[in-house]
């Protein structure tokens, strides 16, 4: 009854354990922590100055390969790592330029420009597109019902018209038509196109308000220079061959859209004329090769079979449907902007240099 009379210090409960078990429990106990000795500082080696000057060693640029070629910018390691992989690398632009024909380059340049105009027009119409999406997805119940019943006709019409007019403004201002223009210059053209579009929308709102209040219609000024009156349809008369390629004649456009349509058609025709030089040279070379093959077949199988297998090339038109002088208009000659123009102050047109080096 030790618990009643108090604890007996002489009684050890571990005495009843076997010696082997005691030794096992003793081995399983954690060892006491002993801190390690601090590291001893090693003496620094003494540097002896050599009074004799040594020759300078040339530092090799790590971005150069063993053949002396610089590592291309596409490599993530400009310090020389994996240079054996990049020693035979040829950029995609050089491959396309050396393997593609002039026709393929012209078609690729036109495709890239159309895609750039499409993207820029969508960026300028971001607000109209957002309003269309809000109408379709709706807010409260009444907006959803109205959107389903009308299929968001007004919002869709506003977005489509914005996209079409913005694309025309970009074409008229020569967007992506100059191969050596910088991204900043193209952005200025894009912003100026958006400014001209909203100027047109403001004029339409003024005309609508004047008609509702039975007031005279405000005078029409030039889209590209509001300080001058709008050019007449006689001044903007287009060549017949050019007007036939348009969706509708110039007279059928609203009065405030005629100048934009004429300007866009003239810019596209001027750009097409510049592209035509490469196509003409390529067609002449192709026709000469075709004539050589036709002569060889005619010599072997006779003239009827030779001309049947390889017919005569089409005759090159000696007279163009319109000349470059007809594409120039004096009403827009004094409105060419400078490349140093600030945003919002930029003129309406950009001089088109030779675009054949693009793409």
Describe the structure in your own words.
- By secondary structure, the chain is mainly alpha-helical.
- The protein has a domain at 177-357.
- Helices cover 51% and strands 0% of the residues.
- α5 (102-124) crosses α8, α6 (126-137) packs antiparallel against α8 and α8 (153-172) crosses α11 (258-301).
- The longest helix is centred in the C-terminal third of the chain and has 44 residues, at 258-301.
- Residues 56-60 and 335-359 have low confidence and may be disordered.
Provide tags for this entry.
0% strand; mainly alpha; 359 residues; extended; single chain; 13 helices
Give the helices and strands, then pairings.
Elements (H helix, E strand, L loop, with lengths): L1 H4 L13 H10 L54 H4 L5 H8 L2 H23 L1 H12 L3 H10 L2 H20 L10 H30 L27 H6 L12 H44 L1 H7 L14 H4 L32
Helix pairs in contact: 5-8, 6-8, 8-9, 8-11, 11-12
Secondary-structure element pattern, one letter each: HHHHHHHHHHHHH
N-to-C CA distance: 105 Å
Question: Quick one: biggest sheet?
Answer: none
What is the residue-averaged pLDDT?
76
């Amino acid at each position: 009854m030790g618990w009643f009379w108090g604890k007996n210090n002489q009684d050890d409960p571990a005495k009843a354990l076997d010696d082997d078990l005691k030794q096992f429990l003793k081995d399983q106990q954690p060892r006491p922590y002993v801190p390690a000795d601090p590291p001893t500082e090693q003496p620094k080696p003494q540097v002896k100055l050599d009074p004799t000057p040594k020759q300078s060693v040339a530092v090799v640029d790590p971005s150069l390969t063993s053949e002396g070629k610089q590592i291309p910018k596409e490599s993530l390691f400009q310090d020389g790592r994996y240079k054996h992989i990049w020693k035979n690398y040829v950029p995609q632009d050089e491959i396309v330029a050396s393997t593609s024909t002039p026709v393929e380059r012209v078609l690729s340049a036109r495709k890239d420009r159309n895609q750039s105009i499409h993207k820029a027009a969508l960026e300028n119409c971001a607000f109209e597109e957002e309003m269309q999406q809000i109408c379709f997805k709706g807010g409260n119940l009444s907006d959803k019902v109205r959107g389903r019943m009308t299929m968001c006709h007004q919002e869709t019409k506003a977005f489509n018209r914005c996209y079409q007019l913005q694309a025309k403004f970009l074409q008229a201002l020569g967007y992506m038509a100059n191969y050596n223009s910088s991204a900043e210059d193209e952005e200025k053209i894009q912003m100026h196109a958006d400014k001209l579009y909203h100027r047109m929308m403001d004029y339409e709102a003024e005309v609508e308000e004047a008609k509702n209040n039975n007031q005279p219609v405000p005078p029409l000024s030039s889209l590209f220079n509001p300080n001058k009156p709008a050019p007449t349809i006689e001044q903007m008369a287009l060549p017949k061959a050019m007007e036939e390629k348009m969706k509708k004649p110039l007279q059928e456009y609203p009065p405030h859209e005629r100048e934009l349509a004429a300007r866009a058609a003239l810019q596209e025709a001027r750009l097409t004329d510049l592209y035509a030089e490469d196509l003409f040279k390529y067609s002449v070379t192709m026709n000469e090769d075709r004539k050589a093959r036709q002569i060889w077949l005619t010599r072997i199988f006779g003239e009827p079979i030779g001309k049947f297998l390889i017919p005569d090339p089409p005759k090159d038109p000696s007279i163009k449907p319109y000349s470059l002088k007809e594409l120039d208009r004096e009403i827009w000659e004094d409105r060419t902007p400078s490349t140093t123009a600030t945003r919002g102050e930029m003129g309406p047109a950009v001089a088109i240099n030779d675009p054949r080096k693009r793409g």
